[in-house]
Amino acid sequence: METENLSVLLLHKHPEFLRACCDLINDEWPRSETARMMSLQASCDNLPTSLILVSDAKQILGHLKLTPIPAIPESCFIETVVISKALRGKKLGSFLMRRAEEYCKNVLKLEKVYLSTKGQENFYAKLGYVICEPISIYGSGSPNSFKLSPSRNKVEIPVPRVVSIPTGVPPPPPPPMPETSVNNNTINTIKSNKTFMFKYI
Ligand SMILES: CC(C)(COP(=O)(O)OP(=O)(O)OC[C@H]1O[C@@H](n2cnc3c(N)ncnc32)[C@H](O)[C@@H]1OP(=O)(O)O)[C@@H](O)C(=O)NCCC(=O)NCCS
User: Fold this and answer.
1) Spatial distance between the Cα atoms of 14 and 161, rounded to a whole number of angstroms
2) 41: which of 12, 19, 26, 91 lies 20 to 30 Å off by Cα?
């Protein structure tokens, strides 16, 4: 597909594409429209930033979102990469990714971009991404700590209740550790079912 008729735009500068962008993403990953719109409306000049691929006929063809990684400030995380179903395999995804990398390097002055995927490893490998250790996109933890999905992989550490114990009575045993894939050594060993990849830009 000819790319000279295509533009990559900042979604928050073009709110006229908000609704269509919401539909494009929800067509791939169905989610509440309200939640999706709120997420897209958070796009701003500082991260998070949604970039959209638009044709000269003012049709939205693709989207991706850049989010911050607090523990690795010279980088960002690329997520929700999607091309309109009817237009896949025409290099539009590659075009959007490359434009996003240029934006990260030249405008945001970043050095690296990270992403995670399950099934699209070859697509990203062709763009120069290599597999890396899982990273956390939450908080300011170690770069080696894992990205925990708030809903599915959340590790809840039980907080013991404070109770008054009569003198001479041994305290009750501590509660059992939560059922997770955490092993005895470190939280860093939580398994992720996604492949993490990164690229120097
Ligand atoms: C993944 C996606 C963004 C790729 O966009 P696209 O425009 O179809 O990809 P391109 O045409 O730029 O493909 C570039 C290369 O990657 C390859 N490729 C694309 N998708 C691939 C896949 N799923 N598996 C293996 N290779 C793939 C293409 O064959 C092409 O290879 P070539 O250069 O040798 O011809 C698009 O298929 C999509 O929206 N998928 C559904 C949403 C999704 O899974 N997003 C990724 C979330 S991590």
Assistant:
1) 51
2) 91
